[in-house]
Amino acid sequence: MEGDPAGGAARAPPAERRPPAAPPRLSEDPSGRPPRPDPLSNLAAAYGSSLAWRGRALAERLVPLRRLQCYFAVDTRYVGQKLARLLFPFGHQDWQVRYQQDPPVAPRFDVNAPDLYIPVMAFITYLLVAGLALGTQNRFSPDLLGLLASSTLAWLIVEVLAVLLGLYLVAVNTALTPIDLVAFSGYKYVGMIAGLLAGLVFGKPGYYMLLGWCCVTIFVFTIRSLRLKILSEATEGVPRQVTQNQVRMYLTMAVAGLQPLLMYWLTFHLIY
């Protein structure tokens, strides 16, 4: 054992050093009192919450999410019956929507109610079938498929805006909403898919035959579905001049006649 250099005397332990006290923060009171609330921060928080509430209200007004949910409330039975009416509308007599509610009735409760499920699914399927058709002809490219999708959406928007303008010019007081018009305009994708599939299997003769049938059926379907809405004032007994009723009927026929034209325009270049 080594000796203590101080002659064996025990060395006193060193004094414990205390860390220096932290300086008070700028937001704290040196006396220890709780900080006072900043009126500017409270005002900014209130203004931010007000802007968020106004933004949600504006978004709900422009894109009514609650109404959109009703248009997607479908089931397997409704989809089957709706597709049957789209492809074989001649044997059906009842085209009146039984329930008139706001928000609109869920389509699964009434087969005559418009929906967005079939148009959206048909639009996606149309792009897939179009890509398949382009691939069989060695013409497929992502850019071409994207151009096809954007042009199809552009034609849909132009069609809906044109119908809204026609309803405004004719001064039709109808319960049709822009979402309803999107739904009715999107039903033509079902016939376009059928025509393209027939063209892939049977060539141009099959394409023209099945597309022609679907053009006739979508014309009849649109006429029978929209005439009860566009001509609703005349059927409810409101006195109108004969010329005004004729103009409304012409508008209904124009909307229905536009569907086959767009069906051919959006598909003829995909079949060779």
Automatic annotation (TrEMBL):
Entry keywords, A to Z: Endoplasmic reticulum, Golgi apparatus, Membrane, Protein transport, Transmembrane, Transmembrane helix, Transport
One GO-annotated biological process of the protein: protein transport
Superkingdom in the source lineage: Eukaryota
According to the UniProt record, where is the region Disordered? 1-41
**In its UniProt entry, what is this protein called?**
Protein YIF1
What's an example GO cellular component term for this entry? endoplasmic reticulum membrane
Q: Where are the transmembrane segments?
A: 116-135, 147-169, 181-201, 207-226, 247-266
Q: Where in the cell is it found?
A: Endoplasmic reticulum membrane; Golgi apparatus membrane
Q: Transmembrane: is it a keyword of this entry?
A: yes
Q: Which gene encodes it?
A: YIF1B
Q: Kindly report the protein's main subcellular placement as a broad class.
A: endoplasmic reticulum
Membrane topology, record value: Multi-pass membrane protein
Physiological role: Has a role in transport between endoplasmic reticulum and Golgi.
Task: Please verify whether the record's keywords include Endoplasmic reticulum.
Answer: yes
* Family designation: Belongs to the YIF1 family.
UniProt-listed PANTHER family: PROTEIN YIF1B, YIP1 INTERACTING FACTOR HOMOLOG YIF1 PROTEIN
